[in-house]
Amino acid sequence: MIFTGFYKNFNRLSDEDKQAIFDERKRLGIVPKKSRRSKASSVRTKTSALTKLNREIASLKVKFKDLQGKRGATSDDGDEAQEPQDNAGDQFGGRKKKRKDKE
Fold first, then answer.
1. Domain tally for the chain?
2. 54 belongs to a structural domain
3. Low-confidence residues of the chain, pLDDT below 70?
4. Is residue 19 part of a domain?
5. Mind spelling out the 3-state secondary structure of the chain?
6. What is the domain range of residue 50?
């Protein structure tokens, strides 16, 4: 009688033992369980790819518009490669403004 269940050290068994286990499992009709893998939805992957590309297109449009504006206008001030401003500065006030408003 051959044990057909899980062997912790299956890789360490000899080839003859492994083959005997396989043969016994086949004789008994034991089919190994297939692991479940979640398949990514094609709609979700296409949507995320589309969103990413739309963001890239929007940023390229902004860069193109900036370049068109610089080409059309002559810049006498001399700063050709000015980066767009990323911070909002003190436009939104913050804690100090709230404290003043409370008083």
1. 2
2. yes
3. 73-98, 100, 102-103
4. yes
5. CCCCCCCCCHHHCCHHHHHHHHHHHHHHCCCCCCCCCCCCCHHHHHHHHHHHHHHHHHHHHHHHHHHHHHHHCCCCCCCCCCCCCCCCCCCCCCHHHHHHHHC
6. 41-71
